[in-house]
Amino acid sequence: MTTLAHPAAPGPLGHAWTRIWRARRLVERNIMVYRHQWIIILSGVFEPIFYLIGIGLGLGGIIQEVALADGRMVAYAAFVAPALLATAAMNGAVFETIFNVFFKLNYAKTYEGVLATPMGITEIALGEMMWALMRAALYAVAMFVIMLATGLILSPWGLLMVPAALLVAASFAAAGLAGTSFLRTVNDFDVPMGLIVMPMFLFSGTFFPIEIYPEPVQWFMQATPLFHAISLIRGLSTGLVGLGQLWDFLYLAAFFAICMSIAMRQMERRLIK
Amino acid sequence: MTVVSASGRVWQRNWLVYRRLWHRSLAFGFLQPVLFLTAMGIGIGALLTPASLAAFGGVDYIDWLGPGLLAAMAMQTATFESTYPIMNKIMWGRNYEAMLSTPVGIRSILIGELAWSAFRIGSLASVFLVVLAIFGIVRTPLAILAIPFATLVGVAFSACLIAFTATQKNDVGFSAIFRFVINPLFLFSGTFFPLTQLPEGLRFVAWATPLFHGVELIRGSILDQLNPLTVPLHLAYLLVMLGIGAWFAERTLTRRMAG
User: Fold this and answer.
1) Is B199 helix (H, G, I), strand (E, B) or coil?
2) Chain A residue at shortest CA distance from B176
């Protein structure tokens, strides 16, 4: 009796790896599209650097020192720089998953083409996630190098800033993927950008400690993911690492998991009719 | 149809599109300064000691920042309005092609678009001024001048950016303009901190940039610090910028629509 040689069925881990490996095709596709538009990605590297020079040094010359959560005084630039690293990671992830994914979903219909291949919804979400992480990693590493060169990293914990920034980017990429699927027209961008991203940028302790606001307002600010992103990364760069940072980490991980599951469900609803 | 009445039609076209969006636009126009002033104005203001306020000419940080943000808003809105929407009318939606097949000419299109930009910036500046008044930043009735000043800043930027947009084959260049021109101007034109904080070499560069002149005019009018000697200089700078921008815009747009 002859039997066909069946390869051993892959376990769940093997499945996950197959999907990640397949999702790389979407990353390759994005790299090819961006080949002639690299300035869009590269120019983003300079945004936090301009802010660091403008706000960190320009205002820093007047403000001089700021108190950290443990009461230590640090130079204003050393206070702002890690927050700018966190926001750069957020922006890299959010721009990619909001604007570009919206365009592919609604105008270019890229994913309908993708779905005609062995790739499924999971691979699309994973691929866009990996690509957004690559873009965010570029910004985070650039800012890390600048901080290292200018002496704004105050603790060896600072080495963990880049991996932490990847967690931040993954959370916001998942949130972006989840949010984009609810937008209908380009005018709707006002809502995520004007009502969520911009206010978070202003009120999450980027430029000043939030303790100056009344306590109920502080609770509201502490509920935002960017607050935890900044608290985590600033904690690492200044050596203020404790239970607070563990909590930031757990918050971001949970935020990632929730947003990712919403994103997957929404993508499925939008793409599989 | 004269150039003026034809440009009125171009303006009217924009109005018909905007009519469905104006409440949202003005709502965000109100919200944005409220958020910026509550965050940066109060937050950074709290980090400043009374002694360090001398750097801001002795006024509270929020009072100093608010008018600067108004000038920056005029620049940013004008820039945004003169890049993607103009590109859309040139090549994605081809609206200009349709307009040019009527008695509307390039010059009318340009004047119509600049008048539209003036209207948009003027209305947003009025909302902004109301916010500044609510925050108690406005010191004199002369502050009403901030509206025409902001409009001039906006139109001057619009003219230059329409000239640039007409030369572009896709929207990739806009990112470069936003990141390398508009963002640095936003940060280094005396909006957030006085130029005296910059090293001397950079200070002269900052003085030469357009937003600085807008900031000076607008801050002067709102805080009642207008200097009659420098006002004509700032105005002249922005008017020359508008003139040069419009001159180039007419040329680049003519070439683009012919090609």
Assistant:
1) coil
2) A43
Task: Say yes or no: B140 contacts chain A, CB-CB below 8 A.
Answer: no
Alpha carbon A149 to chain centroid, angstroms: 24
Model pLDDT for residues A140-173, shown as the tens digit of each residue:
999 999 999 999 999 999 999 999 999 999 999 9
- In what helix (H) or strand (E) does residue A67 lie, and over which residues does it extend? strand A65-67
pLDDT at B188: 93
B46 and chain A in contact, CB less than 8 A: yes
B28 to chain A: which residues are within 8 Å by CB?
Answer: 190, 194
Range of the domain at B236: 3-258
How big is the A-B interface in CB pairs under 8 Å?
87
Residue whose pair of structure tokens reads 């890049």 in the numeric block:
B83
Print the domain residue range for A70: 12-271
Non-local (6+) Cβ contacts of B206 within 8 A are B188, B189, B190, B195, B198, B212
A103 in a structural domain: yes
- Which residue in chain B is spatially nearest to A80 when comparing CA positions? B44
Q: Which of A228, A254, A39, A26 is nearest to A126 (CA)?
A: A26
Instruction: Read off the pTM.
Output: 0.91
A202 to B46: CB separation less than 8 angstroms, yes or no? no
Lowest pLDDT segment from A1-15, A31-45, A247-261 = A1-15
| Nearest-neighbour CA in chain A from B195: distance (Å) | 8
Q: Nearest 5 degrees, angle CA A26-CA A29-CA A34?
A: 130
Separation CA A120–CA A179 (nearest Å): 20
Residues near A205 by beta carbon (within 8 Å), at least 6 away in sequence: A83, A221, A227, A230, A231, A234
Please give the residue of chain A at the shortest CA–CA distance from B21.
Answer: A187
Any domain includes A3: no
- Total number of domains in chain B: 1
- The structural domain count of chain A equals 1
Report DSSP state, residue B233. Answer: H
Q: 10 Å Cβ neighbour count for A215?
A: 8
SS3 content of chain A, % helix, strand, coil (to 5): 80, 0, 20
pLDDT along chain B (259 residues), means of 10: 91 93 89 94 91 88 96 96 95 94 95 97 97 97 97 98 96 91 94 91 89 97 95 98 98 93
pLDDT in tens, B26-68: 999 999 999 999 999 999 999 998 888 888 988 999 999 999 9
Name the phi and psi angles at A72, rounded to 5. Answer: -65, 145
Instruction: Give A65's strand partners.
Output: A75
Question: Could you tell me if residue A86 is inside a domain?
Answer: yes
For A73, the 3-state DSSP assignment is strand
**B112 close to B11: Cβ distance less than 8 angstroms:** yes
Percent of chain B with pLDDT over 70: 100
Beta-carbon separation of A208 and B35 below 8 A: no
Q: Is residue A73 part of a domain?
A: yes
